[in-house]
Amino acid sequence: MEYITAMEAAKKWKISKRMVQKYCLNGRIEGAVKVDFSWSIPVNARKPKDLRKTKNMPKKVSADNEKLNLAGLMPLMNTSFDPGECHEVIENMEDGKIKDIAVAEYHYFSGQIEKAAEEAELYITCKDTNIRLSACLIYAYANLSMGQISHAKYALSEVENIFVSSDNNKNPQFIAAKAFVASAASVLLHLPLPEKLPDLQEFLPLLPPGIRGFALYVQAHYLYLQQEYEKSIGIAETALLMGAEEYPISAIYLHLVAVMSYMSLRNQEMAQKHLLIAWKIAQPDDLIEGFGEHHGLLGGMLEAVIKPNWPDDFKRIIDITYRFSAGWRKIHNPVTGHDVADNLTTTEFALAMLAARGWTNQEIADHFGISANTVKKYISLVMKKLKISHRRELKKYMLL
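-> structure tokens emitted (400 positions)
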């Protein structure tokens, strides 16, 4: 009989070598033979179905119950998979609206916002509440990045209409979905939280695990905005330890919010650790949208770590940053009355963020790997653009 190695099987089946070895150890590849510390696999062996993925796939629900079951809410976010296996996970989903939303999710989180908007638009009036909520969120944030603010506001208003017009207002799962969507929409735009939201402890246990991880990211982000950095880190790291790491989309955002808080505490070592873990999760599937969305909050960490080692990816992330931040300001600034700067380059903004937090020119220079004199020139240019004369005035125009 002809055999191939575990690595060859991994390439053939488009999965990780570790997953092939796990199948062999569990006796799920017929005819596999262990030779020393490796495995020999029959060349005609069939790829086993990934039971873990099947377990985490959104379950089909009956027509009577689909409005109340949260399985269809952001299905890709709520699916566990190894980095590099995102496409396979989606392909293994049953054709239908859940799979279509998962595709739209992937296109959004990989920065392909035009595709995401087009795909989500088909479902923003869907009768299935979970699908409709998912579509509205994707459509809103995709249009935000495209500069289509009226479309984004329309989608967010549709979310509100779902909650107002529904007859499920006393159903616990419906309340949980409402709290999750409303808090996510507000916190990510740095807007005031809606009134009468239930306590986190009330709705969190009702959310599916992948979405629960993202809800905890939202809570950690909220605490960051309140400058409660230690609590923010505590929530993010606890969520990851308790299983959120298994859900790549939620895990990426949890690691990024940890970077934000660690940089606010000037712990660059831990910030870099979390950034690199987030990057390790994101890069194989190109899930880079979150890095662009959080650029201004990451304290120059993208410039210090990603730019030198992955310059092409860094350029793409910065493209995401420019388009997302432009749309973000168009909603955030008028609502809050804040005047977050919109005429700075991403490098200028990152430098100014650290300066506004009290970093010296030399500390900023060491972080970015440039000279203190270069930092001084950048800060002077920033102050000129913002028409201010004192360094302390930077706070007014930063995301602090």
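The chain has three domains: 3-48, 53-329, 339-397.
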